[in-house]
Each structure stands twice: as structure tokens, then as C-alpha cells.
Amino acid sequence: KHQAALAARSKDDLRSPICCIMGHVDTGKTKLLDKIRQTNVQEGEAGGITQQIGATYFPEDTLRQKIAPIDPEGKQDFNIPGLLVIDTPGHESFTNLRTRGSSLCNIAILVVDIMHGLEQQTLESIRLLRDKKTPFIVALNKIDRLYGWQSTPDGAFRKSLANQNRATQNEFQDRVDKTIVAFAEQGLNAVLYYDNKNFAKNVSLVPTSAHTGEGIPDMLQLLINLTQERMSEKLMYLSELECTVLEVKVIEGLGTTIDVILSNGVMYEGDKIVLCGLNGPIVTQVRALLTPQPLKEMRVKGSYVHHKMVKAALGVKISAPDLEKAISGSRLMVVGPDDDEEEMMEEVMSDLTGLLHSIDKS
Ligand code: GDP
Q: Which residue ranges does the record assign to the Tr-type G domain (predicted)?
């Protein structure tokens, strides 16, 4: 059976990895995301980027466009159909997700302010990433604040660095050296990404500016390479459904809906689903699988795109009856023809204690 499954694998079965952004407050996590998401605003082009529920999806074509400053001939290999970036690093449900020990993120960007170095929440993020064994890169952000920095908007980092005067280059090197020492104190071997010869052993530092966009092409290319190199074969392909409730929301015209992150597998309209509810397991049927309109139409309020089918990884809004008592952080399962529904009900409810505990704390 396993052999047959392997043989059946095609490009259509590739799964998009999930990337999370972590780090201390005010290091520029939100700003970096905004900058990556930014499209050709003047032309009103969304470039295939779609804002989703709690996440943003970047398809291969868009990623290619974004790394063009360092890959003008389009030589980058792509074994991933795209990248799902989680939008809400500080989202309350993430406490729930963490308590369940889920590995929602396949890869992470740890943002560090180059002017401040490693701060308290940076250290907490490092601990979390290590516990989950999540590969990560470090965005050494706010390089435009280095004294005398001359910016080349959206440029490749090394070109920008070469354009700086000697004093600025020295300050950069000095701050990088200090950061490397600080990482060493945490037992991590950090190196500038272009000096990194071993992704598995060393953490890559990629200098960025969320204001000027410098280094962002470098950061995206690094993410792509790191996922492709470090993500297990198992996670490269769609397999068993894995889905987590991010938020329970009442939407005009739809009633109570749940926003979920589908981190693995495929889901269909009409699927019978099981999830954890405050008063017991909820068993219901998917009425609609929804995502917001593409970016350029985001202003069209209350209108969603309907999908017959969705593939991981993706952020989706599910409309279904009986979701009022659903709990954020809950795992969601789809009942297949051979599945034991009772068993699934028990399984989703086994999370309840942990979920309620973390709701109490927050
Ligand atoms: P978050 O708390 O990590 O999400 O940080 P924000 O994205 O909200 O940024 C915090 C502050 O730092 C804001 O005032 C941003 O404008 C500023 N900021 C973020 N990135 C950069 C950067 O690359 N350069 C400069 N100069 N300021 C930045």
C-alpha cells in the first residue's frame, strides 16, 4: 500500500509548507509581513497572493517574482507549490495550539532587531522552536537604522551592503558579531546566511529592512531553500488531514463559522467533520469552504470565494450548522467511510482539558 502511495505522488500532491513569524515585540514582525505581502499597488495587482483566514498564501509564481532581484534568470528550484505564512504571530489561539504540542509551523522566521540584539521574547521563541524542532532563520531587521545607511529599495542585501561607506559596513559587522556571540550564549551557531555551508547545523542570519525591503528577496529564497532541504519527505506531500480551529466567529448571513488552518490533507464541501465543543463533541457537515476575495478585492466586504475542495496548507473559513460551542485551538477531523465516528468524538474531546486550561490562563 505504501509503495502504491509513493508511486501515485505527483506535483499535484505537493503540500505547501507553513511559515510562522516569531520574535520580541517591536522587532518588525508585522511590518515585515506587510512588506512581503505588498504587491504592485500602483497597478492594483495582487500577483496571485491571497489573503486567507489568519494567513497569507504565496504561490510559486509570486515567490519567483519576489526573489528576482537575487535570481534574475529564474534558476531557483521549486519543490513546493507555494508558502503559507501565518499572519497572526500574537494570536490568542496560538497558546492553545502550543499546549497541544502541535507542529503547525514547518519553518519559522525569528525576527531580531539588529540595533537591540536578543531580547526576552527572542529567547522564549528560541526555546519554543527548539522544543518543536522547527527549523528557522533569523531576520536581522532594521538594517536601515545603521548609521549612514543608503538604501536601495527592495534590493538584494549584498549589493546594498557593498554600496555603503566603510563606517556603515563596520557598524554592520560589529552588530553582526555581537549577535553571533549572543546566539552562541544560547548554544546556537549563527552565521550570515551567505556564509552558511550547513543548514542543519548553523542558524542563518539574513539582514533585512521592513521599511526599504532590502534583504527580503534573500530572506524568501532562504526560506524556500531551507524548507526544501530540511522538511521531511512526509511533509512535502499531502497526507492525512490535519486541521486546527483558530477562531470561532459569528458572520452576518452565515451564522457561527470557524476559521481553521488546514495544515495537511484535502477537504471537501459536504465533508462530515468532528471537533471539540464546550458541551461535548460536535459532529456536523461542511456547508461551505470559504476564503476572502483576492487581495485587490479585499474591500468588498462580506463576500467570500467558495471552494469545492481545498488543499493544505491553507487558511479557510468553514460554514456549518451547530458550531456555536466550538473551541478555538480544537483539532478538527473529517469522518471518512471507514472511520469510527465514536472514536473520533472521543479523540477530539481528549483535548478539552488542555484547551480549557489554556483559556483560563489567557
Ligand atoms: P512587531 O511588534 O514585531 O510586529 O513590530 P512592528 O512591525 O509593529 O514594528 C514596530 C516598529 O518598528 C514600528 O514603528 C515599525 O515602523 C518599526 N519598524 C519595523 N521594521 C522596521 C525596519 O526595518 N526599519 C525601521 N527603521 N523601522 C522598522
A: 14-232
